[in-house]
Predict the 3D structure of the following.
Amino acid sequence: MQTLKGLGVSQGIAIGKAALKESRPMTIPERRIEKQRIEKEIARLEASIEKVVSDIDRLINEFSFSDVEKEILHSHKLILQDPELRKNVVRILEEELIGLENAVHKHFSYAIGIFEKMDNEYYAERVSDYREIANRLLGHMMGYEEDMMSNLSKDTILILEEIPVSLLTKVAKQGIAGIISEIGSRTSHSSIVARALGIPAVVGVEGIRKITGQGDEVIIDGYSGEVIITPTDQKIELYKHMIEQEKHRSLELMKLVDLPSRTKDGVRVNLRCNIELPDELAHVKRINPDGIGLFRTEFLYISDNELPSEDEQFEIYKMIAEELNPKPVIVRTVDIGGDKLHNLINLRHEDNPNMGCRGIRLSLRHPEMFHAQIKAILRASHYGNIRVMFPMVSSLDELLRAKQHINECMNELRKNEIPFDDDIKLGVMIEVPSAAMISDTLAQHCDFFSIGTNDLIQYTLAVDRTSENVTDYYNPYHPAMMHLITLIVQNARKYNLPVSVCGEMASDRDFIPILLGLGITELSVNPGSVLTIKEFISKIDSCVLVELVLDILDQITSKNVKKIIVKWREKYGIKI
Ligand code: PEP
Ligand code: MG
């Protein structure tokens, strides 16, 4: 038995069998082949090239890329269609009698090696083009994702270096017991999706792949972050007992389902859910939240190999709006980029994608994609209480341009006599420090704010939210966060603008009293937390919150912020 410790990012306990998978396709099989096999390998090469070229063509046709971007895509096609590629690979196959993947890998490594040696910007760019094409071609040849999906069952504990979000959405459909990775953080998107899907997950478990064998028995504890490999019978019994207790607690919490969320002294708090996938709806309805406070629509884009069409999106938004009507459904326009990069829009490589073309920036740069989504949301607004929200806004100009696109789409729908909610509410996510600083101005041009604390912490404290290397710097207790959130709330209040919090802070029992104390009465949290938070809020007396907030705003260190929170809880006997 061996016990390892990581970060529990999705609660729950499971006992299952280890399935170790490669999360990167680049372990090239060292296969040798017979001479007779060469023809077949060439046929495979040609089919793979054709497939990747047609994927690129599809991209070019579906999007309005800038001329520069089109040029890049065309140059990628040229790399694939270059007769030298075929000629070289065939030569390597014939001379070395090695498998196709290895031959292709050799060809590209050689070309990349040459470019790397040239001290010239043009060739430096070719290196990244060649790498990208090599990865796509090899990924296709090696059936990388299909392999990840094989041999999984309901008692599988998936073990990877890193969890790709697209994989998670797929495995969730067939069901697994838990997931463990060597790399990851609490607010990375795969962790958020694991929580949403209720899959126990522990990330940052360094070295687990070295000591675990395929099929080993594994216990995963998503509460404590503990992972036990080949546990003793005694440990298994202990954890089985804990699983029973967990079930009992869930049944107790289910008693709160039909009660409105209120503080002890009766202040109503709207407790909404963050969702990522339409599949979550059945579970969401069972826990009866006050609506959807954040629908992260990008997961519709990254869980498939094609962009969702306007009609497909319309059906999904309509279904959710109807199911929850009259409760609000806040649809966030697509927030791709950052750690959510995907291969459908061939973004230029960015060394620092979190600071790159993501969220509203990407939507504004791809108006066709943006319009398809806006029209789908507007059309669905006729069937329920839908609101729109823009992610990653960092300036007034972006908000005004986004609103301009909304107007254009509204005019088009009017012209075609398609009904929609004329008075649809438009909100801004406040998750970039510049947006927080100009929240006074933004408040005059939108209908609501939602504070995205996950990114607001990342950008304010200059700490990559997905890096396990700096988790200790990712510190929501930082006094800067307390002051920034206060500023946003004060600015919103001047214009009577509703403010909600939809980042992970909204489900953190250390911060809920502070947020309520600032006057925030709308929280949006992952579905699995709604009932525990409802229970927690019911223990809080709103009259004693002002004292807490004033005290917190006086603190100049994170340590003291934390201390004050604990002291306050002890003083009023609030258990978590
Ligand atoms: C946030 O940044 O707090 C947020 C809710 O958005 P996401 O986690 O999807 O970036
Ligand atoms: Mg965000």
